[in-house]
Structures are given as structure tokens and as C-alpha cells.
Write a structure and sequence with these properties.
Strand 3 and strand 4 form a beta hairpin. The strands form four sheets. Strands 5-11-10-7-8 form a five-stranded mixed β-sheet, with no helix packed on it. Strands 1, 13, 16 and 17 form a four-stranded mixed β-sheet that branches. The protein is of the alpha+beta class. It has a domain of 167 residues: Sandwich (Immunoglobulin-like). This is Carboxypeptidase regulatory-like domain-containing protein.
Length: 255
């Protein structure tokens, strides 16, 4: 039978062994993070936006111009708050949140953009070089999309429930319009460093899957980078990691 001193010694040895094991696993994880080519499962990073209420929708502001002869606003109601009358962007469609790395890889399947209700979903997309894009017409009438820079996406009619594919010829911003519907205005940004992208909800919360390591997050609105880049470092665990700082998409001017 083990004596009390023997039991204590065994307990200490067991605890010491577990501690050494944890330290070894931690050291291995740190070493692997510095070894190129070692793949880890993607981690979901969760964050928030700052300044999203300062992003104005250009299509709506363009439409309210009396010279455009699109429509005019009635006299503002005194019971409606001024901030509600501000024509801000619709974040889930219009604000792309992009992770930037050394070089992005295009997906094997095309990125889908749907056309419905006088708009595209999403409005701004950011893709790596060589990515194919598929425009799907979900309206009961045709559309005739084209890029305003005449860079290979000519005005071709797309019938209802049909689609057309296009691969942008190189890096840069491409503005997409429709000859049949002036409200259709969207942007394709080819960014060679784009490795992942996502869209926030109406409140400005977002989640993006990233591999462990350092990354830069950047928001794109109306085809342009907005706000400030956010440096983040993702660790191999836990599988969900809240970001400590918000992603700034518009700087609030100081008073």
C-alpha cells in the first residue's frame, strides 16, 4: 500500500507532467506559426464597425437631385428625426470588409452577384486577380449591364432568369451600370492582396474566417477603400475570436 508521502509524490509528478505537456504544446504551436506552409483550420474573427453612419449612398443622393428629374422629396416631417432622413448606405449590401495578405487566390467557382429590385447584391465586391464573376438576373425583365470604363464588359442584354459571366482583365476599380435601369450601379474591385471578404449586418457587426497569423482588414464602399486599415493577429485557438478594436470605415470629424 502506498504511503501518504508516496501519494503526494505521485500527485506532484502527475501535475508536473501535465504542465510540461501544456508548455510543449504551446511551444510547438508558436514554432508552427513561424514555419511557412503549415496550414491551420480557419478561425472566425468577430468585429464591429466605427463610423458607418457617415457613409452616404451615392445612388440615392444622385436621385434626389432635382436636375436628375428622378423624383423629389416632400417637405420633411417635423416628427422624423434628421438622422433618419440621412441617406446612408445599406451595410449588408454596400460595404465590403476585406482581409488583405500577400497574394489572394481566386475561387474555383464564380462569385455570384444577383440583380433584383433595381439593385445588385452585393453592390461592392472585392476579389483577387483572375476571379470570375457571375451576374444573375432575378428580375422578371431584362437588364443590360456594362462597365463604364469599356474594359471588356460590354452592354449585352441578359434575359430574366439568365446570367452572364465575366473575369475582369486586371487590378483596379470597375463601375457597373445598366442601360435599362439607372438605379443599378455597382463596383467590382480587383485587389491582388484580397484573401477573404465578408459583409456586416445592419448594426455593423461582422464575422470573417481567417487563417492564424497577421492580417490587415479594410473596408470598401462605392468601389473605394474607406476609413483605416486594421491590423489583427489571429491565433490558432479558440475557434472564435473577438477583435479588440473596431474597424474604422469613416472618421468622425472633430468639433
Amino acid at each position: 500500500m502506498d504511503t501518504f508521502d508516496t501519494l503526494v509524490s505521485k500527485a506532484k509528478a502527475s501535475h508536473s507532467g501535465r504542465l510540461r505537456g501544456l508548455l510543449r504544446r504551446g511551444a510547438v504551436a508558436l514554432v508552427l506559426l513561424t514555419v511557412p506552409g503549415v496550414a491551420f483550420a480557419a478561425v472566425t474573427a468577430k468585429g464591429k464597425l466605427s463610423g458607418a453612419d457617415k457613409l452616404l449612398n451615392p445612388v440615392w443622393n444622385e436621385a434626389k437631385d432635382p436636375n436628375a428629374r428622378r423624383y423629389t422629396f416632400r417637405e420633411p416631417s417635423p416628427t422624423v428625426r434628421p438622422d433618419v432622413r440621412t441617406l446612408t448606405g445599406h451595410l449588408p449590401k454596400e460595404l465590403a470588409i476585406v482581409a488583405l495578405g500577400d497574394k489572394g487566390t481566386p475561387q474555383k467557382v464564380p462569385v455570384s452577384v444577383s440583380i433584383a429590385g433595381g439593385r445588385t447584391s452585393p453592390v461592392t465586391i472585392v476579389v483577387p486577380e483572375g476571379q470570375q464573376i457571375n451576374f444573375e438576373n432575378k428580375d422578371p425583365f431584362p437588364h443590360k449591364l456594362y462597365d463604364t470604363g469599356n474594359k471588356g464588359f460590354g452592354a449585352v442584354e441578359t434575359a430574366p432568369n439568365k446570367s452572364r459571366s465575366w473575369t475582369p482583365p486586371g487590378p483596379g476599380k470597375y463601375e457597373i451600370r445598366d442601360q435599362f435601369a439607372p438605379s443599378v450601379r455597382s463596383w467590382v474591385v480587383v485587389e491582388p492582396r484580397a484573401i477573404a471578404s465578408t459583409y456586416p449586418d445592419r448594426k455593423g457587426d461582422f464575422a470573417i474566417d481567417l487563417e492564424p497569423g497577421p492580417h490587415k482588414l479594410r473596408a470598401y464602399f462605392n468601389g473605394e477603400p474607406v476609413g483605416q486599415e486594421l491590423d489583427v493577429v489571429i491565433t490558432p485557438f479558440p475557434t472564435e475570436q473577438p477583435l479588440k478594436a473596431p474597424l474604422v470605415v469613416a472618421v468622425t470629424p472633430s468639433k
